[in-house]
């Protein structure tokens, strides 16, 4: 239904949707909210505007993903809907909503379907992921783990953001638990922390790890001058980078996202929007079959999170 509407609608009736240049996962969340609004309003949608991660000629989402609309709406007035309560499949067309009736956690499967429709890697990114997979010898069956440090860790210490940054040992314990349960010993590792690679290999010697070995992780590290200038988040450094630097970083991220989304199981933390998107994408790629996962902090939820006030819990989030 989504595909049919997107292709058959006159371009004059398409919503020109803008997006915020926030963190990667937050931007993806915002796009899903926009897609839900379009379905609710019986409209088609096109995403327009420059993306801070994009370094190809068009500087937009086509640098990484297949376009969701054939319409070129560059220069059109953009729509920026506010983040609203969780999207729901019950306020869209009945034919599409019926797909989610009777399912356990229909909101998750609705979001998973929207994510799968929106985030289809383009040919360049698929070829890059396949080249890395062959180079590192990644087998067909493997677990995925996303260790988010970098700006994610620094932000919660110097801002009011209460998300918690976990030590590598916390990740390794949960990864071992998932490995033991499903008897899978191969693991694809994505991280912005170069030290985490050796640490988790030492902590889990019985597991075989695979990762991108040519990622410029030095670019991801916060320098003293970044903190002095309050350039805490990666996006702030990308704004100052040239097109080649942006596109290289985007390609590295997309390879991780693609390979993680095809893993048999996943370890992350759902206070990170990327982890939430990965679970949704992985489930979509399996035809709606839930991916085994472990979150180090909160359960999966959509865009509404708040810090808890329960005594004795530090930096814990609730949906």
Automatic annotation (TrEMBL):
- Superkingdom of origin organism: Eukaryota
Q: Name one GO biological process term.
A: protein N-linked glycosylation
| Coiled-coil spans in chain | none
Q: Name one GO molecular function term.
A: alpha-(1->6)-fucosyltransferase activity
Q: PANTHER family given for it?
A: ALPHA- 1,6 -FUCOSYLTRANSFERASE, ALPHA-(1,6)-FUCOSYLTRANSFERASE
What name appears for this protein in its UniProt entry? GT23 domain-containing protein
Species for this entry: Guillardia theta (strain CCMP2712) (Cryptophyte)
Recall the taxonomic lineage recorded for the source organism. Eukaryota, Cryptophyceae, Pyrenomonadales, Geminigeraceae, Guillardia
